[in-house]
Amino acid sequence: xxxxARLEACLLLFARRSDPVLLRSGLALLLDALLPVQHQAxxxxxxxxxxxxxxxxxxxAGGRMVADLDDEAFELAAVLVAAGLAADPDGPADTAAHRxxxxxxxxxxxxxxxxxxxxLDRPRSRAQQRHDAxxxxxxxxxxxxxxxxxxxxxxxxxxxxxxxHLHGVPGALPGRTATGGRWTREQIRRxxxxxxxxxxxxxxxxxxxxxxxxxRTATALERLVKHVETGGVCQRAGCDHGPATGxxxxxxxxxxxxxxxSTSLGDTVLLCEPDHEHELHRRGxxxxxxxxxxxxxxxxxxxxx
Length: 305
Fold this sequence. Notes:
The chain is of the alpha+beta class. It contains eleven helices and 13 strands. The strands form five sheets. It has a three-stranded antiparallel sheet. Strands 6-7-9 form a three-stranded antiparallel sheet, with no helix packed on it.
């Protein structure tokens, strides 16, 4: 018979012999096999309709992401979320807590947590776990600079806040993100605990007066700035050692990094190797700097000139 008649006969035979639960997916699979052109056309339409919108909520914190994905983007997103779920550090706690909380509350542990009583502490829902897995994947992808650099640095979240806001001073304005979001003190403090940070201090005229970060060693740019600032010589009073005399200058933390966990331009001292290794560390001597400050092996003795 004709192709149409053969197709109808095939569909009827399939419907009689298949489990009703599998009928819809099975028919779609059968049509893909019999009509590959239509299958390609659907894939083309999905590609034409692809899109992504990010909209910040006007009446509450956060935002909404709406995506219409083509086949490849959907698979990539599914793999990223699955990998994030497997690597989520909170995942084991969710699994263990699910049954324990349910049993303590007299709730069937197989019941969806969304249906638990409101007063029972719940593990994260599956949707929340997928959300957190996506966030984890995005953070790790940016940390690895997988998308390249911007201005010679990996792109990251930028939050600008005031010390008053971090210290909880009443009336202090919230922190602002590069996309215009307003972040609470608790959100920023959590970010401070989980991230490697660069701190930039501005004066009232928005001029940079101090820079510090949580990396242990000074960056190449910071070393260059200190060389320019000190004239390329040791900062110890009466010492003219430096590259010109064949002596390497060592960036030294005024306050030990083990206690401060930060590296700051203002706290970094350039010392020649003899003063740094022999006088300061081996002999444990206090060194007077050219600006009047005094530093010892355990940190500042007199930090101000």
